[in-house]
């Protein structure tokens, strides 16, 4: 158990809909990272938040957005969903996120299926 | 972020030592090398990290030559439970780093 929690575990929705994925980092970690993993694909970095502020942005679509709240939990919002958005979405956390070599602790993931 | 190249897959028998090599020719001075392990439908898990020479922990060793253009993850006496995907990441300081795991190396361990 990494100490990172994600909800829900599974999510099935229809195209065009909007969903919110939630992540709670390890106690004491200030940074949260979001990743997308499609079938047979590697992990694609989406976005990083540090202590409530956006820190780094990767291959995140404009239909996707995220935020980190004062209690440090984070939400990833996916809107106008398409079939291709079906994937595993992972959240990770690290102590500060100021340097790449910090160990990231990953949550169990949310499996999203868009029908 | 330095581009990395790993073999797509490897097979091994249980009890053997497995070495997975990662190439990172354009590694920067401040870059560290980190390896993660991922089981199906689970999040990646940190294995080991190094900057140069050799690093060893309770599960693996990481060998980094002097030029740091490659690194080798060594798993001693693998078991069936080591069947997983192994990712090599190279990166350093900087808030604008794009963290890409790539497709990794799929290790299959059999009896």
Structure, explained:
The complex is a heterodimer of chains A (115) and B (111). Chain A has 115 residues and is an all-beta fold. In chain A, 0% of the residues lie in helices and 50% in strands. Chain A has strands at residues 5-7, 10-13, 19-24, 31-37, 44-50, 53-57, 64-68, 74-78, 87-94, 105-106, 110-114. Chain B is an all-beta fold. Chain B is 0% helix and 47% strand. The chains are: A mainly beta (115), B mainly beta (111). Chain A binds chain B through residues 2, 4, 33, 35, 41-45, 48, 50, 55-56, 58-59, 88, 90, 92, 97-101, 103-109, 111, and chain B through 1, 31-32, 34, 38, 41-46, 49, 87, 91-104.
Shape of chain B: globular
Calculate the terminal CA-CA distance of chain B, rounded to whole Å.
38 Å
Please count the helical segments of chain B: 0
**Strands side by side in the biggest sheet of chain B:** 1-9-8-3-4
Oligomer: heterodimer
The portion of residues assigned to helices of chain A is under 10%
- Let me know the largest β-sheet of chain B: 5 strands, mixed
Amount of helix of chain B: under 10%
Beta strand count of chain B: 9
What would you report as the Rg of chain B, rounded to the nearest angstrom?
14 Å
Arithmetic mean pLDDT of chain B: 88
The tally of strands of chain A reads 11
The CA-CA distance between the termini of chain A, in Å, is 31 Å
Mean pLDDT of chain A: 92
């Amino acid at each position: 158990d990494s100490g990172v929690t994600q909800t829900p575990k599974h999510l099935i929705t229809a195209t065009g809909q909007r969903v919110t994925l939630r992540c709670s980092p390890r106690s004491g970690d200030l940074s949260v990272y979001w990743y997308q993993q499609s079938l047979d694909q590697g992990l694609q970095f989406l976005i990083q938040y540090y202590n409530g502020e956006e820190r780094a942005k990767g291959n995140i679509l404009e239909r996707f957005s995220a935020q980190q709240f004062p209690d440090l939990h984070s939400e990833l919002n996916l809107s106008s969903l398409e079939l291709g958005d079906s994937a595993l979405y992972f959240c990770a956390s690290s102590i500060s996120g100021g340097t790449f070599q910090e160990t990231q602790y990953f949550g169990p993931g949310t499996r999203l299926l868009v029908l | 972020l330095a581009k990395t190249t790993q073999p797509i897959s490897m097979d091994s028998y249980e009890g053997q030592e497995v070495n997975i090599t990662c190439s990172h020719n354009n590694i920067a001075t401040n870059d560290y090398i980190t390896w993660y392990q991922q089981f199906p439908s689970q999040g990646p898990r940190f294995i080991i990290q190094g900057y140069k020479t050799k690093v060893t922990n309770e599960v693996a060793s990481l060998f980094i030559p002097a030029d740091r253009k490659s690194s080798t993850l060594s798993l001693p006496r693998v078991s069936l439970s080591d069947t997983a995907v192994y990712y090599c990441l190279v990166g350093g300081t900087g808030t604008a780093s794009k963290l890409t795991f790539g497709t990794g190396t799929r290790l299959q361990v059999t009896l």
